[in-house]
Amino acid sequence: MSETLPKNNIFKVIGASSLGTLIEWYDFYIFGSLAVIIGHQLFPEDAGASALINTLAIFAAGFIVRPFGALVFGRLGDLIGRKYTFLLTLVLMGGSTFLIGLIPSYSSIGYAAPILVLILRLVQGLALGGEYGGAATYVAEHAPKNKRGFFTSWIQTTATLGLFLSLGVIVITKNVLGADTFADWGWRIPFLLSILLVVVSIYIRMKMHESPMFSKLKAEGNVSKNPLKESFNNKANFKMVLLALFGATMGQGVIWYTGQFYAQSFLENTCKLDFNDSRYILLWGIAFATPFFVIFGAWSDRVGRKWIMLAGMLLGIVFYRPIYQAFLDDTDTTKMDLTGAVYAKPAIKREALSGTSDSLYTSTTNVVLKSGASFNKFQVDTVSQKSGVLSGKEIIKDKVLPTPLFWKFVGLIFFQILLVTMVYGPIAAFLVELFPTKIRYTSMSLPYHIGNGVFGGLVPFIATLIASFAGATPLSGLWYPIGIATLSLIIGTIYLSNKRDENIND
Question: Could you tell me which InterPro entries the record lists for this protein (predicted)?
Answer without folding.
Answer: MFS_dom, MFS_sugar_transport-like, MFS_trans_sf, Sugar_transporter_CS
